[in-house]
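Troubleshooting: if your tokenizer reports a length mismatch, compare your output against this known-good record of 88 residues.
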Amino acid sequence: MFAFLRLVLTFVVILALLYAALSLHMRLRYRARLRRHLDAQHADGDRALLFREGMQRYDRSFQRKLTHLVYVLPPSAILLIIYVINFL
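Known-good structure output:
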């Protein structure tokens, strides 16, 4: 039982690190793309306000929500493999 709990805890920690890395990577890519877009537009007005609005748009985006699948897909794949091996 303790071995199983240790496995689950290790798996959760690995998924949390993977999620943090993926989330940070996606956010930095969006920031860079937003800066390039604002530079190309020669955005007049308050540049900081436009940048803040763009990042708020990213925080509400579907792309950001898709990163939560890091917690869903690997355990689902493992459970599917266990089911197929044992019961089919």
